[in-house]
User: What shape does this take?
Amino acid sequence: MAVVGLGTDIVQVARIANSKQMQALAKRVLTESEQLRFAEHSSAARFLAKRFAAKEAAAKALGTGIAKGVGFQQIEISNNQLGKPELHFSGAALALAEQLGVTSQFISISDERDYAVATVVLERE
Assistant: This one.
């Protein structure tokens, strides 16, 4: 295995929580299924901060950031039965991952009172 991409991002939770445009930001950043979880989450700002950091980290691992055709809606974060986060690409993000030969992807998301942080590693065989 060879690492083909590594990305990390950190978000200040208060910036999201204090945003007058949090709902608009959520609509721009979250996919439909993520928006459903956001609406039901007990700490919506924390949920959004973690997803924002995770998507930024994934886009950085692809080598573009949120640019050059790669957008927030093409990166989705879900959780398996044990709560482990899983990364899913679509559209231009998926095409870029395929171009890079990505065969494995790893994501770690963490938060504490003030910050949410995420790291993504992309590998190929």
